[in-house]
Amino acid sequence: MVNNNKPTLKDILVLQLVFVIYSFSSVVAKLASAQMSSLGSVFDIRFILLALLDVIILGVYALLWQQVIKKWELSIAYANKGMTLFWGLLWGGLIFNEAITAQKVLGIFVVFLGVVIMNGEKVAQA
Predict the structure, then answer these.
(1) Residue 90 resides in a domain
(2) Burial of 47 (0-12, 13-18, 19+ CB in 10 A)
(3) Backbone angles phi, psi at 100, to 5 degrees
(4) Domain total for the chain?
(5) Is residue 4 assigned to a domain?
(6) pTM of this prediction exceeds 0.85
(7) How far is CA 79 from CA 48, 64, 84, 88, 120, in A?
(8) Which residues span the domain enclosing 67?
(9) Residue 3 belongs to some domain of the structure
(10) What is the pLDDT of residues 32-90, one digit of tens each?
(11) In the chain, which ranges are E strands?
């Protein structure tokens, strides 16, 4: 059963932490892909360890997601998942030196506005 209480700042931060953890899966997957590309073998221990780490991250995320949807309405929680685009852009720039362009920032801003609108409706209904 979904908790109909007004979400607190802590609830919102926990939700975002879950998505940060989820976004690490993409980082590890990209590292594994680069490892395999440079070695050309899925049997390399570094690739296997990175793939295993990715599965562990996704497992932790799955467990946390189950807890999140106990607290939040699924439509609200899933709308917030769009914030993984922000985290992906951040990790891409910081870890992989990918370009952070104005178009990407604008796109993230539009997603962020959607998340705020969805959370604002939840707060207004509570």
Answers:
(1) yes
(2) buried
(3) -105, 100
(4) 1
(5) no
(6) no
(7) 33, 16, 10, 16, 12
(8) 9-125
(9) no
(10) 888 876 666 667 788 889 999 999 999 999 999 999 988 888 888 888 888 898 899 99
(11) none
